[in-house]
């Protein structure tokens, strides 16, 4: 099972749940305000999502970027792909 499929794993770190995403504080943050925007369905990458779901994901990213910038913090966004669908073990972009 995918480590992100068990929503109960995030209940104490959940910031928001939408129709298609769960937004949580990272369990092992590498910087302050480190959050994860996790789609409820499996996709190889953000770029492989259907347009409507991608639009929702971008809206969420912008919303949280604005919150972080409001607190005078810098933003870095990165995606490493989904190793469970990526059988080649290469990074998906």
Notes on the protein architecture:
- With about 90 residues, the chain is α+β, with helices and mostly antiparallel strands.
- The chain contains one helix and three strands.
- It has one helix at about 50-70; strands at about 15, 20-25, 35-40.
- A three-stranded antiparallel beta sheet has the order 1-2-3, with helices on one face.
- Strand 1 (about 15) and strand 2 form a beta hairpin.
- The longest helix is centred in the middle third of the chain and has 20 residues, at about 50-70.
- The chain is globular.
- The two termini are about 25 Å apart.
- About 5% of the residues are buried.
- The model has no long low-confidence stretch (mean pLDDT about 80).
Summarize the structure.
Helices cover 22% and strands 15% of the residues. The protein is an alpha+beta fold and 93 residues long. The two termini are 23 Å apart.
């Amino acid at each position: 099972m995918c480590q992100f499929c068990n929503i109960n794993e995030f209940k104490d770190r959940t910031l928001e749940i939408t129709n298609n995403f769960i937004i949580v504080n990272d369990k092992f943050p590498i910087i302050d305000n480190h959050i994860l925007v996790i789609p409820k369905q499996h996709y190889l990458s953000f770029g492989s999502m259907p347009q409507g779901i991608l639009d929702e994901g971008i809206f969420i990213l912008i919303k949280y970027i604005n919150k972080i910038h409001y607190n005078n913090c810098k933003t870095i966004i990165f995606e490493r792909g989904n190793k469970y669908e990526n059988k080649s073990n290469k990074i998906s972009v």
